[in-house]
Amino acid sequence: MNKYIKTIALATIATLSLTSTAQNTNSAYFMDGYNYRYQLNPAFGNEKNFISIPGIGNINAAMHGTIGLDDVLYNIDGKTTTFLNPAVDASFINDLDDVSRLGSNINVNVLSIGFHGLKGYNTISVNVKSNFNTRIPKTLFSLLKENIENKSYDISDFNSHADVYGEIALGHSHQINQKWRIGATVKFLLGGANVDADFEKAQLTLGEDAWTAVTNAKVQASIKGLEYERDINKDTGHEYVNGMDVDGAGLNGFGMALDLGLQFSPNDNLSLSAAVLDLGYINWNNNMVASTGGEKTFTTDKYSFSADDDATNSFDNEWELLQNDLSALYELEDEGDKGSRSKTLGATLNVGAEYAILAYRKLKFGLLNSTRFQGDYTWTEFRLSANINPRKAFSAGANVAVGTYGWSFGWLMNINTTGFNMFLGMDHTMGKLAKQGIPLSSNASVNMGITIPF
Question: String of b and e for 209-246 (b: at least 16 CB within 10 Å)?
Answer without folding.
Answer: eebebebbbbbbbbbbebbbeeeebeeeeeebbbbbee
